[in-house]
Amino acid sequence: MLDMDSSDSWRRAFHVELRAQAIGLAWRGWAVLPGTYPAGSQWAGREGVENTGPQPVHADWQERIGTKPEQVATWWTGQPYSLLLATGVTLDAIEVPGHLGRGAARVLRAVGLPVPILATPDDRWTFLVHSGQELASPLVEHGDVVLHQAGSWVPLPPTPVEHGVVHWRVRPEVCGWQMPAASLVQDALMDAIANESTYARGGRLVTAD
User: What predicted TM-score, i.e. pTM, was given to this entire model?
Assistant: First the structure.
C-alpha cells in the first residue's frame, strides 16, 4: 500500500492525473467510475473505511453507467478516487497471471495485432476486448483466467493499488483506440498455454522476441 503518512503529496500527485484520465475516457464512451482510494492501511471513499479496494464509491454504481462526461468530471473534484472501468458495457476484460499475459502478448506481436493491456504490481495482466463473448473451455479449465463482464469492474491506470499503481503495458493509443474481438485474445492466450506446455515437456519454446 502507498504510504499515506505523506497523504497530501500523494493526493497532489495523483488527483489531477486521475481526473484527467477519467474525463478523457468518458468522452471516448468508456464506462468509468470512481473507486475507493488508499488511506493508511485501509481504503476510503465510501461511508467509513474498508479493508479491500479499489471498489466503486457509489452503491448504485451500475445505475450510473453511461453518465455524461460533464457529470463524470464532478465525481473527481473532491477526492483522489481510483479510476475503475465497469465491464460488460462496451468492453470486457480478461485478467491473467503475468507469465501467461507475456506469452499472449508475444503471440499478438508476432501477428501484428496490438491490444490494450494493463498490469498491476502483483503481476496480473488484463487485456481489454469487445464485450459479449464467454471464455473458451480451455481458458475456463486453466483456472487462473478471469473474465470481467457485466456486474464487474477493473482498475485503470494510474489507480494506486498495493505496492504501486496500475500501469499500461500497451496503451489504447497504440491500437488507435480500436478494441480487439475477444476471440483473438483468447486464441493468443490458448497459444501461450500450449507454448508453456511444450516448454514444460522439454520442447523448444518459440517466441516473437
Answer: 0.89
**What is the reported pLDDT for 3?**
47
Closest C-alpha among 18, 167, 174 to residue 101: 167
3-31 CB burial, b ≥16 within 10 A, e <16: ebeeeeebeeebbeebbebbbebbeeebb
Pick from 105, 96, 84: nearest CA to 161: 84
Q: What is residue 14's three-state secondary structure?
A: helix
User: Which residues lie across from 82 on neighbouring strands?
Assistant: 35
| pLDDT digit string, tens, across residues 139-169 | 999 989 999 999 999 999 999 888 889 999 9
Q: Is 170 helix (H, G, I), strand (E, B) or coil?
A: strand
